[in-house]
Design goal:
The chain has 654 residues and is an alpha+beta fold. The chain folds into three domains: 111 residues, Serine Threonine Protein Phosphatase 5, Tetratricopeptide repeat, CATH 1.25.40; 191 residues, Serine Threonine Protein Phosphatase 5, Tetratricopeptide repeat; 162 residues, Nucleotide cyclase, GGDEF domain (Alpha-Beta Plaits, 2-Layer Sandwich), CATH 3.30.70.1230. The protein has 30 helices and eight strands. Strands 1, 2, 3, 4, 5, 6, 7 and 8 form an eight-stranded mixed β-sheet that branches. The longest helix is centred in the last third of the chain and has 22 residues. It is globular, with a radius of gyration of 30 Å.
């Protein structure tokens, strides 16, 4: 690799040609300070600025390039730059400026001989017609642009025009023809035939269209092809669409990273409505993992940014047992969405699920009919799978488990085909119910165990716990497996004054704090052999086989939080209770007086304290410093209990 350091402008061009955008933009800024840049170089500088996440500087450079082309009487190139400025202002929702630049481009090209710029003008007109719902006009304009691109041998123009034409055909309901054009444009993008911007734009529009259609298999195939060939995706929207696909595929950590990065990039470009979509995807991940506070905060942010947080918010309410609130929430969302069948299709599966929980069986059946109709029009495996799940659930409540099982088995197969493990597991839970109602307990339990294993692998704690309860209930009902009773040591944790903290630091910071808290505590539970029983709000309920391990874990939690506080200036304040007792295990949960005693002991603790029953410390065979021994009466417990505070700052627990 050679550079021309004696000619900073030449070096800047070389660096940008290698797509080293950040360095290239810096070099162009240096060159701009020492020499007068021509309009061609200003265009290159704008491209580097855009990819380096400096959209305002990109617009400034484009405006200067436009002025340079006008002065040189190069109307065709001036028009192309004006179209780029129209696009960028439109993306920022600066509609008046976008229209002004568009009209300038149109006027400049009116007297020019046909060139690629005319094709790109048709492309912008096609996008405007598509956004206005004028689909036939959008299709015709894009077709003209593609013809010019073909005739003049301009691959960028041809691919972009094919993409616009395909998107308009899809919106019109002509899926096969539309997706064929989108596939052709996508092939050009991932094959390295196009420039950086058009490559990223085609890929981004492809994955966005696939997500809208629930055609996740196609989106995944093209995404894998793009990754293999090192395609650079456009900032922002593309990462958010990728996050949606990754959520479906069960890659939740990667999905959250993609959504967060996309949201940050979109903020830099002032595309706040699209930031809301990124926050919604983060909310979905937190909900599925049982992080109620994190989900609520993310959905709140999405709503504030203009993205109605449905259906996730309604499902979160259902998860919290607020059936009436969930019903009102999803009903409102569905009533407001009357125009777009695809938008209704995103809401209908959740409407069916919530309506069945609320006992509104007729409403659920009607919504299932509509969902099946949409799946027939907009043909995609995921759409059919969702319709099969809804139909199977309705058949179950209407007393037809045999047909329900057939329908739900098809749903499981389809969800597996599109690599959607969570959705397949949820369908399996319903399938297990249908099989059990036909008297086949063994096969039902097998399906439940398979679903539970998937939930465990994904980290879908609420669904895993529900599957455990169903397994335990089935075992207890048949007598095939008795309930287990024995001595366990229970540890309860809770963040103190969490509401005050949220108000002090804000929702977004609170989500980060809770995530760190949950990950840190779960790591310590695992290290000390704890079994997470429940995670509600910002507290944990954990079971240990040995009292000593539970006490060691409690001490490790407080010391870890204190160390983080000293090193970083902040960590949430947590109170902990520990109690060894006899209890009955049913599935993942425990029943009995001892569980209530443990919870009440934890409520005695102040922030930063560990309170344990004296018998627990005595039975631990550990040297554990204690203070403040006392006898207490616990609410709902008749006999007094001796408790102590663990002096976790002193000595060791060895």
């Amino acid at each position: 690799m050679t550079t021309t350091t004696e000619d900073p402008l030449a070096e800047a061009r070389e660096v940008v040609a290698r797509h080293e955008w950040d360095r290239g933009f810096e070099l162009f800024q240096d060159a701009d300070a020492s020499v007068e840049l021509g309009p061609e170089d200003l265009e290159i500088m704008a491209e580097a600025a855009w990819w380096a996440m400096h959209p305002d500087e990109a617009i400034e450079a484009l405006e200067r390039a436009y002025a340079g082309y006008v002065e040189a009487k190069d109307n065709a190139r001036a028009a192309f730059v004006a179209l780029t400025l129209s696009r960028e202002h439109g993306a920022k929702l600066a509609g008046s400026e976008a229209t002004g630049w568009f009209n300038r481009a149109k006027r400049l090209l009116a007297s020019e001989p046909e060139g690629p710029e005319h094709g790109f003008l048709y492309g912008r007109q096609s996008v405007r017609a598509l956004n206005a719902g004028n689909l036939d006009e959008a299709i015709e304009l894009a077709r003209r642009g593609a013809e010019i691109g073909e005739r003049l041998g301009d691959p960028d123009l041809r691919a972009a025009s094919l993409m616009y034409q395909g998107m308009a055909l899809v919106e019109k309901g002509e899926l096969a023809d539309g997706m064929a054009l989108i596939d052709e444009a996508s092939l050009a993008a991932v094959s390295g035939e196009l420039g950086p911007y058009v490559t990223g734009s085609v890929y981004c529009n492809m994955i966005g269209t696939c997500c809208e259609l629930a055609d996740y298999g196609r989106a995944g195939e093209w995404t894998e092809a793009a990754l293999r060939r090192g395609v650079r995706i456009t900032p922002g929207d593309c990462r958010v669409h990728q996050a949606e696909v990754l959520v479906l595929r069960g890659q939740w950590a990667e999905a959250e990273e993609s959504a967060r990065r996309g949201a940050e990039e979109l903020r830099a470009f002032n595309r706040f409505v699209h930031v809301g979509e990124g926050m919604y995807q983060i909310g979905e991940i937190r909900r599925l993992m049982g992080d109620v506070a994190g989900a609520q905060a993310a959905y709140h942010d999405a709503g504030e940014l203009g993205r109605d947080p449905q259906p996730g918010l309604s499902l979160l309410l259902l998860q919290q047992g607020k059936v009436d609130a969930a019903t009102a929430s999803i009903t409102r969302a569905l009533e407001e969405e009357t125009a777009s069948k695809l938008s209704r299709a995103r809401l209908l599966p959740s409407f069916v699920r919530i309506s069945l929980e609320a006992g509104k069986f007729d409403a659920a059946a009607e919504a299932t009919d509509e969902l099946e109709e949409i799946a027939g029009t907009f043909d995609a495996p995921a759409r059919h799978a969702a319709a099969h799940v809804a139909r199977g659930a309705v058949l179950l409540v209407k007393g037809d488990p045999k047909e329900a099982a057939r329908t739900l088995r098809r749903a499981v197969t389809l969800w597996h085909d599109v690599e959607a493990p969570y959705e397949a597991a949820r369908a399996r839970v319903l399938l297990a119910r249908a099989i059990r109602e036909q008297g086949d307990e063994e096969t039902s339990a097998m399906e439940l165990r398979a679903a539970r294993a998937t939930f465990e692998k994904l980290g879908a704690v609420p669904d895993r716990n529900a599957a455990d309860d169903l397994l335990a209930g089935a075992a207890a009902a048949t007598g095939s497996v008795g309930t287990e009773r024995g001595v366990k040591t229970f540890l309860f944790t809770d963040i103190v004054r969490s509401t005050d903290l949220v108000e002090a630091i804000g929702d977004e910071a609170w989500v980060d704090v809770v995530r760190w808290h949950d990950e840190t505590l779960r790591s310590l539970f695992a290290t000390h052999g704890g079994d997470e029983v429940d995670h509600a709000g910002d507290g944990f309920f954990v079971a240990f086989d040995e009292a000593g391990r539970a006490l060691e874990c409690a001490v490790a939690i407080q010391r870890t939080l204190a160390d983080h506080r000293r090193a970083h200036g902040f960590a949430p304040t947590v109170r902990i209770g520990v109690h060894a007792t006899a209890a009955t295990r049913l599935g993942r949960t425990f029943r009995g007086k001892g569980v209530h005693e443990a919870a009440r002991i934890a409520s005695l603790a102040e922030g930063g304290e560990i309170i344990a029953s004296r018998d627990t410390v005595t039975s631990s065979a550990r040297s554990i410093p204690v203070v403040d021994a006392r006898e207490v009466r616990l609410k709902g417990i008749s006999d007094p209990v001796q408790v102590v505070a663990i002096d976790w700052r002193k000595g060791s627990t060895s």
